Amino acid sequence: MKNIFLETYGCQMNEYDSELIRSILAENNFKFVSSQEAAQVVLINTCAVRENAHQKIFHRLDELKGMKRRGEIKVVGVLGCMAQSLRKDLAEHSPTVDIVAGPDSYKKLPNLLNAVSESSAKGFDFSLSEFETYADVTPKRLAGVNAWIAVMRGCDNFCTFCVVPYTRGRERSRTVESVLNEAHRIESEGFKQVTILGQNVNSYSSEGNDFADLMKQLAEKTHIPRIRFTSPHPKDFPRRLLHIIAEYPSLCKQIHLPLQAGNDAVLQRMNRTYSKKEFYALVDEIREIIPGVGLTTDVIVGFSGETDAEFEDTFEVMERVRFDSAFIFKYSERKNTIASRELPDDVPEHLKTERIVRLNELQRQISKEINQSEVGTTKTVLIESVSKKDPNQWLGKTDQNKGVVFTAENLKPGDFVEVAITSATTNTLLGEIATPVKKPLKVLSLSI
Ligand code: SF4
User: I need a surface site. Which of 127, 385, 410, 435 has the fewest CB within 10 A?
Assistant: First the structure.
């Protein structure tokens, strides 16, 4: 049972964790296959942040149940955040699932898999560690343009709606040296963009270095052309970092700043520990220090007790700040969170729907206006892939992380090009190549 098919759901941290899992298992002679048909083992790296993520995975487990019954696969493993949060249910009540391993248990996977294949027993491990950072594991990355480095894991903030502190444990950071070593490896492997990850990335702290120190060293000591990070917390965003981002061209002029709500009472119930006024002040400072910065956010509508007036405050913040884009979600109660114990999920579904529709409409309008104001400008674009809609076109990203679609020949993913923006939609800039493409020099053979 050495052939594994690994599926990843959820955030960029999960993508990164899947690279760690690939590395740990490959070191132990397991093989990863690209199709389920060639696998005896299916591992699902899961997300627990929202209810629909859970539903997706339960639906997938139903499919795998049939495959297991027909003998098409032998072992099913559930890994990651959902494995940690629903450990007992999965371990005791799901006959489909053979292995359950939380985010700090990946080094135990080879033993768990070997034990399961030698007997019909199940294998579980969901111990959380105060120290595990996987700094000693070299992630097995798929070749491409983008790479990730998790510099810290866990979260100590305990926002009342969030399950992360329970699924990923306490905050711990890697040393600057280990992050730089990984960055140099990424550079030598030819990746053009790295995203620095942490559940609460600006809580990074190691040997007297804070997150601003780490980003400065990455900018100074590597030649990676684009360096991003996600996600910071507005309560303690290091102001020094703004000047560092403004100073170094490789640090992208883009910040994802989760708002979650724009009303002080809701923010307090969420335990976000900042106010609407403080959020405005931070946004003003960001825009003053980094002109033209791309700002994106996350918002939850219909959190416990959210009144019409409280929602209107969130609407007002979105209207005033004018984010480039936003991920807006309806509140869904997560098991084991503070909110699930102390705050009722009492906003009726129809009101949550009404509010998300209004906020999405507002955001679509704002995103479209901002994008259309880019028409006539020229952007430096990093090509990431062919466009999903039209394989004859390229999809690339600006420094502000905006998608740009354009046509050009003799290019490839990883190339940087100047693109003149000719039109725009809500989500995408459209353009045409502005710089002549450098063609390879012809080698002349001279006969003497
Ligand atoms: S900062 Fe809050 S929302 Fe973010 S991971 Fe920590 S507890 Fe969850």
Answer: 410
